[in-house]
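Entry 14. Structure prediction run on the chain below.
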Amino acid sequence: MRPSPVVRIVLLWLAGIDLRLTLLAVPPVIPLIHRDLHLNESGIAALSNLPVLVLAGSSMFGALLVARLGARRALVSGLWVIALSSALRGAGPSVATLFAMTLVMGVGIALIQPAFPSLARAWFPDRIAFGTGVWANGLLCGESISASLTIPFLLPLVGGSWERSFVAWSIPVAVTALALGFVRDAGDATSRPANGAWLPDVRDRRTWMLGVFQSAASLTYFGANTFLPDFLHATGEPQLVAAALAALNVAQIPASLVVGLIPMRILGRRETSLFVALLIVVALAGMIAFGGAVAVAAAALLGFTGAYILTMSFALPALLAPPHEIARLAGGTFTVGYTISFVTTLLSGAAWDLTRAPAAAFLPMLLSAAIVAVLGSRLGAALQTAPAVRSAG
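Output returned:
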């Protein structure tokens, strides 16, 4: 069937949720995994960061899948990989199975992520930013759904079993894959490159510019998420950890609505990029200098700005590239962005260890502000002349 606009919105939003639903189901059950499989802290850290490594190394193959199958079919295939591997993470249970299936699940997520920009343009050719905002909002909601509902709601339903909780969170992913399987439209044909090209073009400066720009989002959000709890403990305010993390994550959701509803010709202005960069600097200064309620507000500001940058980076490939090149550009963008983010986060931790100054871990966020100020302005200038933006008014 050819989906109506409402059906497209619902399916794109649900698929966006599935990008993070099974991934963020892990942190709430880490104590249970720790108990049953006797993993040490290094093992837990490896389990948590394995999907990020896979995203950095495998996103380009998502472009290959789109080149061969088209965006919708690639999305359906990847969702099935995620659903099955996520459900099998608790099989045994054993450490080997848990890590192997987590690896496969990460591959599934990496495979489908480049399909989203192509599908957003195919389904919403005159409202690309809106389509991007839909699936980005789903992604951000997916981060909070499994993280917040696993302990109070799901675990009691599955008898406190972390293995069964993984199976339960896989069911919505399978349902979305089934629903998308019944959709028939021209989106698959328009998203497939005529020459079959899928490897990121390292000579295309857009790949590097967009990748570095996306890394600013990860540096802001993952940097805060990783180091904020220890920072508050180190500065004598452990009671603020829960409130600060909640503010950081909840404040992400409105950012996707901003990108989806405000015209791109406004978001692409130099003044907008400079304002977002200024907000990051203000948030960092407030968190480090004042603490208390200001730290919680600063965490919310970092969550909003990080999600705004991320959603913009999701929209840009579909706005700057022709339909048949979107997945290729997006795959290269994700590869560059996640690699920079992973390496820089490790360096942030090393900076804290070497200086013994908690604030040192947040220095990369100043780098993200500089990236937004410089690259955001340049990408915004390119947007003003992009055909997709001009046609959208």
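The mean pLDDT is 85.
Filed with the rest of this week's runs.
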